[in-house]
Amino acid sequence: MPELPEVETVRRTLTKLVKGKKVEQVDVTWPKIIKKPDDIEAFDMLLHGQEIQHIGRRGKFLTFQLNDYVLVSHLRMEGKYEMGDGSAPDKHTHVRFFFSDGTELRYKDVRKFGTMHLFPKGEEMSTQPLSQLGPEPFEDPTFTPDYLKETFQATSRDVKTVLLDQRAVAGLGNIYVDEALFKAGIRPDTKAALLSNSKIAALHEKVEETISNAVLKGGSSVRSYVNGNGEMGLFQLELHVYGRQGEGCRVCGSEIIKTVVAGRGTHYCSSCQPAIVALKGK
Fold this sequence. Notes:
By secondary structure, this protein is an alpha+beta fold. The protein folds into 2 domains: 4-120, MutM-like, N-terminal (N-terminal domain of MutM-like DNA repair proteins, Alpha-Beta Barrel), CATH 3.20.190; 145-269, Helicase, Ruva Protein, domain 3, CATH 1.10.8. 24% of the residues lie in helices and 21% in strands. The chain has helices at residues 4-18, 40-47, 145-153, 159-164, 174-184, 197-216, and strands spanning 23-28, 34-36, 54-58, 61-65, 69-74, 80-83, 93-99, 104-108, 115-120, 256-261, 264-269. The strands form 3 sheets. It has a 5-stranded mixed beta sheet, covered by helices on one side. β3 and β4 (61-65) form a beta hairpin. It is elongated and about 60 Å long. The two termini are 35 Å apart. The model has no long low-confidence stretch (mean pLDDT 92). Monomer. Residues 2-114 form the Formamidopyrimidine-DNA glycosylase catalytic domain. Residues 240-274 form the FPG-type domain. DNA binds at residues 92, 111. One of its GO terms (biological process) is base-excision repair.
């Protein structure tokens, strides 16, 4: 958290707030966030005079397209951006971008897990962290049922583990994987290679549908997520299984079960998502 819908919402908000602004100075108070270059003075120097021409996104990463560089930012668990309001920064503000028009963008991170990489323009996609990302289920024509089928048939892992693997599908996280699997009627611990063509097609459809709906609603504010304007997402009001353990399924009334899959808390309905134990069929 944040996952693809939350990061996409932040991207859209930041585009309205900072596109076209020119960086005059950068103040870093927690150097470990800056991964490239490894010198915060060089980070400040390289960004000086750079204009934010476009803000993009790849999976869960934001990409600030500048004149000569691309700043790749990963929010991880608790990272967030907000515009400065003239007040003194709090203890969770670790990077401040000062613009030539007198405004300021702040990066705040309670856990300090977020990262920033600064690449010369054109090099950002050929090296980590972006180089190993798979296709994503939002406005990406390479994310197809055939791609999922090929990916599932090449592994012995369960379907949730595969969907959480950013090298297989970029942008998905715990919330939206649980929700998409519920809508497709697939138990999260099902071996991916056992899924039939029809189940794979249903899963592909529900993953794309779930992500698109979440983007439309501004993401899910189940913890501390807010967009660049401090606004909460609304998709959490539509969750069917995630975070609803012990409650009744909204479709059949059966109890929502919580277990652990891929080391993550996992939610499903045992009635709507039956176990698949037979060999796959067509």
